[in-house]
Amino acid sequence: MLRTLAETAAGIGALATLSMTANLLALRGLDPRDVPGCVRVRVEWWSANVGTVLLVSAALTLLGLAGIAATATL
After folding, report:
1. Which of 24, 41, 70, 73 gets the most CB atoms within 10 Å of its CB?
2. Residue 31's Cα: distance from chain center in Å?
3. Where are the alpha helices (DSSP H) in the chain?
4. Other Cβ atoms within 10 Å of 20 Cβ, number
């Protein structure tokens, strides 16, 4: 049970980390004024918060991997 939870956390964290890295790279060269008004607020929010979400995703991945390592001895 705990190993499955750790594997799920590691998988979701890794996927989110990859997604946020791609998002960060995409937003790096984007000026929010160049996007349509209907998505401008969303682009501005992601531009302001992508670093935090990336950090949380990486932490989730590491916690999941630590959980896998801890349950390997059980």
Report:
1. 24
2. 22
3. 2-28, 37-72
4. 21
